[in-house]
From TrEMBL:
Transmembrane parts of this sequence: 43-63, 75-97
Location (main, coarse): membrane
Organism, as annotated: Cellulomonas fulva
Localization, UniProt: Cell membrane
Comp. bias (Gly residues): 11-20
Keyword annotations from UniProtKB, A to Z: Cell membrane, Membrane, Transmembrane, Transmembrane helix
One Pfam family cited in the UniProt record for this chain: RDD
Keyword Oxidoreductase: no
Protein name as it appears in the record: RDD family protein
Amino acid sequence: MTTRENVGSWLEGGPGGDQGARGARLGLPAQGPGSAAGVGRRIVALVVDWTVCLAISATFFPADETATFLVRADSIVTLAVFALENLLLVGLLGFTLGHRLLGLRVRTAGYAPGGTPVSDDARAPGLVRGFVRTALLCLVIPAVVWDADGRGLHDRLAGTAIVRR
């Protein structure tokens, strides 16, 4: 017989305290440094990154000289600058400008062959993971589909996670 407590624990992500916490299956702490980043911080970091890329695009590759500053940026060039920023900065440093300003970083996350979570070596994910993550991020849809650990599909397929510094 199903009790109210059983249904409640299932809806909250599973039984047992931190076991249902976002990122717990990846071995991430429930709170503090190294925990899964919240959606609010991630969105603000994205806005910061996009604004910087928009400013670069408007300055160096204006599509309309007569428009106001940020409106004159070419959208394809802005996306290309955004992709290049994400590929290089995330792949080599583990964070973008927005991530850094908001106290976030991208780390390798997933499961070892035995099914145990990969430990955090505090290194950047690398250019291959950065490329996969960036390509999927630029498609938008994978970035807005999240799993139970709070990772977008782009992070899940790249084997990464955004965590707090």
